[in-house]
Structures are given as C-alpha cells and as structure tokens.
C-alpha cells in the first residue's frame, strides 16, 4: 500500500483523456487500493486515476459516513441520467474551492468491477453527483469548468500563487 | 471529490426558511421553491413543501405572533432567521409534529443557515410562545389581519365587493387546494379513468357538474397518474374546466386563445374538437414553451405565437376569428389557496394596472371577432373591478357587443357575467363573461 501524489489544478495532466483498461489484472487492483488509501487519507469521497497521474479509466468512491463501503468502477459509462440536483462540490485537485454544481439527480451506470466483471447500478443523491464528478475527470474535465469564467480564473490564480509559495 | 463537513445538504426546515425569505423579498413562491428543491434530498421534500406553503399561507398571522415574541425586530439580512421563527410557530400551532421535535429541529436549522448565533434566540422565542400560547392566540383573534391571515387592503377589498361573502372567501383562501384532473375524453371517459385510478390505489371522485373533472383525495406526483405522459389526463381546477363549455364549440372554427400559457384551456378546446384552427398566443416566450409541452403530451397541435395580444399589427394576419378566449392577467384574488404568495406579493396599486391591461385586451381584440362570433372573457379574480365592472364598461364602449347567456350558467349570476367565489363548490374563484358580436 502506498499514498499517491495528487495533481492540482491547473496542472495540464488533469486535462488528458484517460484510456480504457483492457485487462483487470493485479497491477490495476494494486492501483485501485492505493487510490482508495489516498482518498481516505485526503480525506475525500471519490478519486479518479487521472488525479494521481495514471491515464486509466478507473475511479474509486466511498460516500459512507463510516468509510466502509468502497466502490470501484473500471471503464464506467453513464447509461441514463434523470432530473437535476444542485450540490456544493469540492475536489482533491482543486483545494479549498467549494462551488454549487448542477448535475443529474439520478443515474444508471455500467462498469467493470475489480474482478473484471461487467455490472450495472443505479445511483441518486450524493453518490450520483460523485460518480458524475469522477467520470468527468476521466474525460479531462473538472468541476470548475461548470463555473463562470470569472470564478474559475480566481480559483486558478489563487492556486498558482499557492504553488509558487511552496516552491 | 470532496465535500465540506459544514456544507451538508439543506434540511427541510433550513430550505423552507430560504424560500420564505426569498418570497418576503419579492420572489414568487413557485420560483423560489423549484430552485431550492433541487438542493434537497428526496426524503426532505415533502416536509419542505408543507412548511414553505404553510408558512406563506399563514404569514400575516405568524408575523403578528412572531413580532410580539421578539423584543426588537431582526435586521433585513436576517430575514431567514425570522422565517425560521415563523416556521417554528407554524409547526407548534398547526402541524402534528411533536412539540419537542419541532423545537429542536427548528433550532438546529440555524446551523445549516450559518446563523448559529440565532439558535438561542429561536429557542427562547418558541418556548415563550408555548408559555404564552393562550394569550397570544387570543390576541390573534382580535384583529382581522391576524385572524384571517390576509393583509388589510385585501380584506377591505373583499369586504367592499362582497359584504355578505367576504368571510367565506377569506376562509376558503386559507385552505389547502385540492388537486383536480381533467380527463382527456378522447382517451377515457370519466368513469373509465376513475377505475384506472382505483387500480393504482389513488382515491378519487368525480367532480359534480363537470363531465371530465376528477378530484383527488390527496395531491400526488403527476407522473404517478396512469397514462399522464401519454396525455390521458391534465391537472386543472374544475373552475377552469367550465370555460370550454361557454365557447359553444363545433368543428371547423378559427379560435384565438389570447393569453394561453400554460395551455390548459387551449388543450381542452382541442381535446374536444382537434380539427379546430387554434392560435395560442402568449406574451412570454418562456411560458409559451409550457403550452408546447402540453400540446405535444396530448398529441394536439396549435399555432403558438409569442406576442403581445394587444399589438395585433405584429402578429395578426387579418383573418377574423369565430371564437376568442381572453383568460386575462389578473390579481389572482380567486386563487389565493393555490398561490398563497399573492398575500405578500400583490400590492393595492397593482389592481388598477391590471384592470387597464384587461381593458386594452378587450378593446384591441374585439375587432378580430367575426360578426356573430363569441368572445369569452375570464379571470381568476374575485374583484368586481376586474370582472363585472370591466365588462359593463366594455359593453358601454362597444355597441357591437352584447352579453350572451349560455345554456348552463357556470356560477352565480353577477351584474354582468358569472362569478364563482372562492369556496363555492370547493372550486377556485373564477369569473366568466360571454360576449356576442351583433
């Protein structure tokens, strides 16, 4: 097990489109568990492989209070979306920014599990929001893309300044 | 993804406080409600609706009590805290929530509004209400505004127009409105659809004197109604369903619905005679979309135009109509039970302005009616100035127009036309007048 380094906006690597995983093998399972550990440590409720500089279509999620219900989605596809819901989102790649984003309220998604088997599930509420947020990462998209240009620029400037100070 | 611990989703009470605050600042209840509803979990939505509508419905009374409980008024920016206080009082006096739960949950809602400082205040005020409940409730009955939960100017206006009925009207305005349906008679008879509802375990009854009307015992989500998406039924009060009968319809007529959105009456007319040439006009492009949606759900078609009906040069092709329906913009003083925010949002000076708009519609559209054609004028108002006095003045201005007496009177006879008052037959308040071109 190992903690992975999380990329921060506006790192261009967050804009790459992740590639489908052809075979779910031990390497993928190891990556998934490292991502989960990284996510719990952050702490966050969802993490996409793109955020730890792995261009693979893999996301890990756990929205439970007890942090005992991890969910792994490999090559996830949104099949159906329904309704609307606003939620104040934050992102491990965009520290300290929380903004309201409108997404579908209910979704149906198809993916592979860690055994490489296809499954489908329905989700609503916070889980639906989180799955959509993470699938966006695999497309190179961030939640700040839903904000006004002004808000996005302000967040970007703040993070750039922050990173310079760290160097 | 991460979420802030403090940015928990809103609870029913904090969400309703935001809605009430927005309405007191001039936003319509429906707009505020739809907007905040999106931020709520499914489980919170029913209480949220009950609280938002209930507090607005009883606002004048709750405000009267709330002000007595506060030693000094709250700042304008703390309108959400005031809303929370009124909601606490509302729960204690009107809802079947145990007092301790109503109290603690309302106090907790302060946190979600980021007004932690107010929790002590809310707690103290609500406990004071409990202690002084008898005296406070007695003071409520001593004044018309608090006793009937209407602003003074509205009470005076009902009193002067309806000296024998104003109490009935005010009381009916405070009732929760029933949900009524119009069965699409091209698809089902009233009896057949009642049977379908029974199979779906939705208790419902036929509405008296309304051949396609159904009253639901309890309001429900439209999508749970059998066949709703395919156009089996529409939601419409029985009062509005009576309009179509007044139009003396047959096939092959040219018909204008001048203020069509959201399209209830347009669709009803076409359900009866789909081959009629229907022009549906509305001044709002946005609201006209609802007409389109309703038409397509019911598999009907009409020419929909976004235009100011009075500006005939801009939209009219010069061909006269056999029938014109003017369901005029009005004070809504007949449908306060459905739109309780009228109590807060409508101002006395609006009435004169609305009456002018109604007059302009009548004067500008009359020349578009064929000789022997019929114009039906309706409002959901209970004020004579918008109704019988409006028509009386029009008949004096327009010698070509005469009142037409329909075979079946839709409501009590007024000086001119017919007036349904809130509370009559448990229907919405409504006014109808039929005018024949000589």
Outline:
The complex is a heterodimer of chains A (about 170) and B (about 450). Chain A has about 170 residues and is of the alpha+beta class.
Q: Which chain pair shows the most residues in contact?
A: A-B, 27 and 10 residues
Oligomeric state of shown chains = heterodimer
Radius of gyration of chain A: 15 Å
Distance between the termini of chain A: 28 Å
What features would you highlight for this structure?
heterodimer; A: 167 residues; alpha+beta; 5-stranded antiparallel sheet; two-stranded antiparallel sheet; 7 strands; 29% helix; globular; B: 438 residues; alpha/beta; 9-stranded mixed sheet; 4-stranded antiparallel sheet; 20 helices; 45% helix
Topology:
The complex is a heterodimer of chains A (167) and B (438).
Chain A: H1 26-41, E1 46-48, E2 58-61, E3 71-82, E4 85-91, E5 94-103, E6 106-112, E7 118-124, H2 125-138, H3 149-166
Chain B: H1 12-24, H2 29-37, H3 45-57, H4 59-69, H5 79-94, H6 99-112, H7 119-131, H8 133-141, H9 144-148, H10 152-161, H11 166-173, E1 179-183, H12 190-199, E2 204-206, E3 213-216, E4 233-235, H13 238-241, H14 243-246, E5 254-257, H15 264-272, E6 277-282, H16 285-297, E7 303-306, H17 312-315, E8 321-327, H18 342-345, H19 348-365, E9 369-379, H20 388-397, E10 401-403, E11 412-413, E12 418-420, E13 430-437
Parallel strand pairs in B: 5-6, 5-8, 6-7, 8-9
Antiparallel strand pairs in B: 1-3, 1-4, 2-3, 9-13, 10-13, 11-12, 12-13
Structure write-up:
The complex is a heterodimer of chains A (167) and B (438). Chain A is built from 3 helices and 7 strands; from the N terminus they run αβββββββαα. Chain A has helices spanning 26-41, 125-138, 149-166, and strands at 46-48, 58-61, 71-82, 85-91, 94-103, 106-112, 118-124. In chain A, the strands form 2 sheets. In chain A, strands 1-2-3-6-7 form a 5-stranded antiparallel sheet. The longest helix of chain A is centred in the C-terminal third of the chain and has 18 residues, at 149-166. Chain A is globular, with a radius of gyration of 15 Å. Chain B contains 20 helices and 13 strands. In chain B, the strands form 2 sheets. In chain B, strands 5, 6, 7, 8, 9, 10, 11, 12 and 13 form a 9-stranded mixed sheet that branches. A 4-stranded antiparallel sheet of chain B has the order 2-3-1-4, with helices on one face. In chain B, helix 5 packs parallel to helix 7 and helix 10 packs across helix 11 (166-173). The model of chain B has no long low-confidence stretch (mean pLDDT 95). The A-B interface holds A 42-47, 84-92, 98, 100, 102, 105, 124-126, 129-130, 133-134, 143 and B 1-4, 7, 9, 38-39, 41-42.
